[in-house]
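Consider a typical record:
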Amino acid sequence: TISALNPAARFIFTVSPIRHWKDGAHENQISKSILHLAIDELQEMFTSALTYFPAYEILLDELRDYRFFAEDMMHPSGVATDYIWERFCKTFFRRETQDAISEWNQISRSLNHVPLNESTENYRQFLKQTLQKLILFRQNHPRIDCRRETEELTKKIKQ
C-alpha cells in the first residue's frame, strides 16, 4: 500500500466543479452528492491521511458569477481555474514550492513567447536571458528536469 511505502503520505480529494449535464441537471447534483458522501466517509475512516479541497464549492459558492464560467456555462473560465489553482497552492504547497512555481511560470511565458521577428538581435538577447534564467532554475531545483527546454532554447539561439 501507499501508506506502507510512505507513512506520511496524504491524499487530497476534490469534486470537479465541471457540470456534467449530459444526463440532466438533477443527475449531476445526485452524482456530486454521492461523491461528497463517499469522501466524507473516507475522511472519517482515514482522518489523518485524507483531506478535501473544495474546488466545487469555491466555483459554485464563492465565485458563482457567470463570468467565472466558460461560454458553455459548464466549465470554469480561465480566471476561475487560475483562482482555484492559486487557492490549492496556498493550501497545500510550502512557500518554497510556490516560489518555484512562480519562477517556472515566468520562464514558461518566455519560452512560449512568439516574436514578430526572430532574426533581431533583441530577440537573440531575450533568448539568452531566458536560457540564463533556465540554467539558474535548474541549479536551484535540480530534481526538476528542464533538459528538453534547455536543448530547444539552445537550438533557437544557434539558428
About this structure: Helices lie at 2-5, 25-45, 55-63, 78-92, 95-111, 121-140, 147-158. The first strand starts at residue 11 and ends at 13. The two ends are 50 Å apart (CA to CA). Residues 104 and 137 are 8 Å apart (CA to CA).
